[in-house]
Amino acid sequence: MREGTGDGASITLDHVGLRRGETDFAFDGDMAAGRITAITGASGAGKSTLLNLIAGFVQPSHGHVRIGGEDMTRLLPGKRPISLIFQEHNLFAHLDLMTNIGLGIDPSLKLTGEERKSVSQALERVGLAGFEKRKPGSLSGGEKQRAAFARSLVRRRPVLLLDEPFAALDPALRADMADLLIDLHRETGNTVVLVTHDHREVERLADDLWRIDGGCVVERQSLRA
Asked: Which CATH number fits domain 1-81+158-225: 3.40.50.880, 3.40.50.300, 3.90.1170.50, 3.30.420.140?
């Protein structure tokens, strides 16, 4: 396992199940605190459904989702100790980056001077120093992804969920973002769950691998000690 501060939280899926359309989903297993777990599988296998169950966007019909040993099954996403990064970045086009990232600290944007300083520090950390007044429309795809990482930094949550966050980037930018994810993971020691189709990202990033097929986990593998 890569060195970190040990600030992650374990994730437990305890016989979690639900039915969507014609598919029955059934997930069971533990993701260790402070590790990067890659979720792979064919399109429609259930990767995003698994991530949405952890995040709270989808409620199971039975079973329990625990984070850090605490039952999260019926909690709304905003009440869970998680941050999320998606391919779409989820940045508000009409707001500058200071505001977009500040929303991760306080949705009412009543930020203290120290909190505004933390936003600037996060932007600097991801290579966007001085971008506080820039709006998303003026940014490249890679810069938008860096801004999303900055927002996850200021939230300081023990779990980071990523749903194919690099899929729209060219190979060079994908490599840069993978390096950034590794660096931030080393600093925070958080628990990372990464949905990806890219075997190179699995090899480069993951400590553990879960392969999903037909709505269930068909393989769990430790890739690094």
From this structure: 3.40.50.300
